[in-house]
Specification:
GO terms for molecular function: serine-type endopeptidase activity. This is Peptidase S1 and S6 chymotrypsin/Hap. It holds the Pfam family PDZ_6. The protein has 5 helices and 22 strands. The protein is mostly beta strands. It is globular, with a radius of gyration of 20 Å.
Length: 351
């Protein structure tokens, strides 16, 4: 895999579930339960987007098996037959045997079961025993910096909350999480729409009411306590295409597949690019993996991926994680003062 040791993050982040760990032209409900996806739709006003989306946006209350701790987050209906997308860190607040309750915008509350979760992408899918729900459709294709967006969710437990803003930036390498096992690697959408603890797992919508991202984290001022963190105009969302692919895998297999090159990066390296290096007994390059087949070795420095400059180990990781298994990427590699371009076909790994 392409993995990191103790990941270094440029921004201090907190995940957005209260009580949890740190960290449109709506398509009609489809009879076959498949996810609603809309490529082209007319722009609408904020009020119309809210009216259309709110029936498909939910609040999740999560408690551990002893109902002594847990948290609150948001989510949205992906399929009419009861599948709901949220963040991993929302459901993780209850542990593996936690109890999950889903509340719809009309106040109806029903129990839910966990279908699958993936810490690396910070995504999870839960299911309720209901049909005929109102899916919130995913947008297909890229979004653009400056596009208007609308966040819907339950910040601080205040359900049916709608905030607006724009896409402030794209391809932000964001790695929230407390430990390596629970760390997420997200090639995130940055937005100035107000996102607060509890918004986690809720949709970030475009002006046609389509999901362009799943709200997952907010920035906090370095040195400030995560306990009192709130919106400072810098929030992050998992891109919608990534969320859709991962959710579909969780539904069909119970786990998600991550694209990898079969190498580790050296987190102690502070120069240009990302240097390959193992640790704790791990080789820098896995035998027989894509990186090895491309001739990469320990000490090689990856300075570009598909023409995009590599600025840090985390940035390289999230860029690869945003691709698809089987896709080929071109790496500009520096070794011994010489540079070469190699093509690497991404393999897949779970866990």
């Amino acid at each position: 895999m392409l993995a990191a040791g103790a990941a270094v993050t440029a921004l201090a982040l907190v995940a957005g579930a209260t009580g949890g760990t740190v960290g449109f032209l709506i398509g009609a409900a489809q009879d076959d339960g498949s996810a609603a996806t809309v490529a082209d739709a007319r722009p609408m006003g904020v009020a119309e987007v809210a009216r259309s989306a709110l029936p498909g946006v939910v609040t999740l209350e999560v408690a551990d098996a002893g109902e002594e701790s847990g948290g609150t987050g948001s989510g949205f209906v992906m399929r009419a037959d009861g599948y709901i997308v949220t963040n991993n860190h929302v459901v993780a607040a209850g542990g593996d045997q936690g109890k999950i309750a889903v509340t719809f915008s009309d106040g109806t509350q029903v129990p839910a079961r966990l279908v699958g979760k993936d810490a690396s992408y910070d995504l999870a899918v839960v299911k309720v025993d209901r049909t005929g729900l109102s899916p919130v459709p995913f947008r297909t294709g890229a979004t653009t910096v400056g596009d208007p967006v609308i966040a819907v969710g339950s910040p601080l437990g205040l359900d049916n909350t709608v905030t607006t803003g724009i896409v402030s930036a794209l391809d932000r390498p964001v790695s929230p999480g407390g430990t390596q096992d629970q760390r997420s690697y997200i090639n995130a959408i940055q937005t100035d729409a107000a996102i607060n603890p509890g918004n986690s797992g809720g949709p970030l919508l475009d002006s046609a009411g389509r999901v362009v991202g799943v709200n997952t984290a907010i920035a906090r001022v370095p040195g400030s306590s995560s306990r009192g963190s709130g919106n400072i105009g810098v929030g992050f969302a998992i891109p919608g295409d990534q969320a859709r692919r991962t959710a579909e895998q969780l539904i069909s297999k119970g786990k998600a597949e991550h694209p990898i090159i079969g190498a580790y990066v050296d987190q102690s390296y502070t120069g240009e690019g990302a240097r390959l290096g193992g640790g704790d007994g791990q080789p820098a390059v896995s035998a027989g993996g894509p990186a090895a087949k491309a001739g990469l070795k320990e000490g090689d420095i990856i300075v570009q991926i598909d023409g995009r400059r590599v600025t840090s180990p985390d940035q390289l990781i999230v860029t690869i994680r945003a691709r698809q298994v089987g896709e080929t990427v071109r790496l500009l590699v520096r070794s011994g003062g010489q540079e070469r371009t190699v093509a690497v076909t991404l393999a897949g790994a779970t866990g």
